[in-house]
Amino acid sequence: MKPITTFLHMRSGRSGLLLSGRVALLAGLTVIPLLSAGPAAQRLPIFDAHIHYSRDAWERFPPAGALKILRRGGVIRAFVSSTPDDGTLRLYRAAPKFIVPVLRPYRTREDMSGWFRDPEVPAYLEERIRTGRGVYRGIGEFHMGVGDAASPVFRRIADLAARENLFLHAHVDAAAVAEIAAVKRGVCVLWAHAGMTAAAETIGRLLDRHANLWAELALRWDVSHDGLKPDWRKLFLRHPDRFLVGTDTWADDRWEFLPRTLDGYRAWLKDLPRAVAEKIAYRNAERLAKPGACARPQAAGQACKRPG
Ligand SMILES: [Zn+2]
User: Fold this and answer.
1) What is the distance in A from the centroid of ligand 1 to the CA of 193?
2) 285 CA distance to ligand 1 centroid (A)?
């Protein structure tokens, strides 16, 4: 029989320390601490970059219940926004170290289509930021289209984001995200769903061009098919510092599936080098959660590794 140390070396890869009970018995050695750690303890922690705690979820999942689901999914922290914003603050008050509030420009769902033309929205955001006393780390998630970033209302909001060191969480297509990222080079833009349908090549080109652009992968099931797809793998290795993962609890039944959704990410993250997987799973989000992550876009640009 091989000495147990050799065996552990053999198994020290990603699946590391998955000793079966039978092998442990055969080895006749004390491996109980490893076994008792269990698969949950070896799970890749996740900073969920796309959680909503909007009104329709409040009754079914009160704060304690919502937090329990997040923790069951192996979430260590989360960016949370909601319509109305009170949901975010309720969850934040229940776990201030765990929840990182992001402020939506939507007072009601009706604000969704024209908020960037409504001159009352910047004042609403300023007031929430003032009374929130520094709890917010970003503005969003918001929706807009090509050309909307030129509106004076959006410019005021971008100025506010720069002044308050907040990132912008934008659910937009590739053309619109390029416009938003160009408005203020010192403001981080977190691209929701990486554009939902944008190809890996398009995303890569935008990340090359805009050092203040980051992307989260909520609902991007197209990243993998029987393992991580080669074009995405190439993209993650080229920009390991610019991707995040998230669930997007846009409807209340998404909460139920949250742990399974996150295991879906872990399934393809394991195809990446561990250091890169950890960055995408939580380390990049931890950096973005700190004020001023894009204050010096040049520094962010160094993260971009061009091939060759
Ligand atoms: Zn969303």
Assistant:
1) 8
2) 16
Please enumerate in sequence order all residues whose Cβ is within 8 A of that of 217, keeping only pairs 6 or more positions apart, or say none.
193, 194, 223, 243, 244, 245, 246, 265, 280
Ligand 1 centroid from CA 141, angstroms? 6
Residue 296 CA to ligand 1 center (angstroms) comes to 27
Residues of the chain with pLDDT under 50: 1-41, 298-308
Q: How far is the CA of 52 from the centre of ligand 1 (A)?
A: 7
**Sequence spans of domains, the chain:** 37-288
pLDDT at 205: 98
Q: Is 223 helix (H, G, I), strand (E, B) or coil?
A: helix
Ligand 1 center–CA 301 separation, angstroms: 27
Residue type, 73: G
- Alpha helices (runs of H) in 239-283, residue ranges in sequence order: 258-269, 274-278
* Token reading at 292: 């001023």
Q: Quote the ligand 1 centre to 260 CA distance (angstroms).
A: 18
Assigned CATH topology for domain 37-288? TIM Barrel (3.20.20)
- Name the packing angle between helices 258-269 and 63-72 (round to 10°): 30
CB 218 within 8 A of CB 21: no
**Residue 34 CA to chain centroid, in angstroms?**
30
